[in-house]
Amino acid sequence: xxxxxxxxxxxxxxxxxxxxxxxxxxxxxxxxxxxxxxxxxxxxxxxxxxxxxxxxxxxxxxxxxxxxxxxxxxxxxxxxxxxxxxxxxxxxxxxxxxxxxxxxxxxxxxxxxxxxxxxxxxxxxxxxxxxxxxxxxxxxxxxxxxxxxxxxxxxxxxxxx
Length: 161
Hints:
- The longest helix is centred in the N-terminal third of the chain and has 17 residues, at 12-28.
- The protein is elongated, with a radius of gyration of 19 Å.
- The strands form 2 sheets. Strands 2, 3, 4, 5 and 6 form a 5-stranded antiparallel sheet that branches. Strands 7-8-1-9 form a 4-stranded antiparallel sheet, covered by helices on one side.
- Helix content is 37%, strand content 29%.
- The chain is α+β, with helices and mostly antiparallel strands.
- It has 2 domains: 3-8 and 99-160, Alpha-Beta Plaits (2-Layer Sandwich); 12-96, Alpha-Beta Plaits, CATH 3.30.70.990.
């Protein structure tokens, strides 16, 4: 009986690579010459620091572009639009969504049930296990979940026949 898991994960090494690439890009950009602007990565969190709030927004755009180049969905980022101000430095802490919350799991299960396909779904912690008799049904479920915008990227793992 074919089965798969619907998960939401972000690879920490890809985040670190995107952070390093963003710092390199900041060093080479003309509008950041002589400006104290950096990205710091620590404990599943990236902090964008700059001397002005508009520069923090530019840093976010740079980081978002680097994530896309590294094939990490930027919808996994979670941050406040307003920068924190401490002394002369503005900073924006960026966290990444790991796992699927119970509310989103329930929405996914409801989507699967509303599709009227002959599959079973069950919530297993921060992931959803889907199993069915036909592989084609699971592939249809994958396309249904991709089409719906639940403000979080999803991956499909452990696809077994």
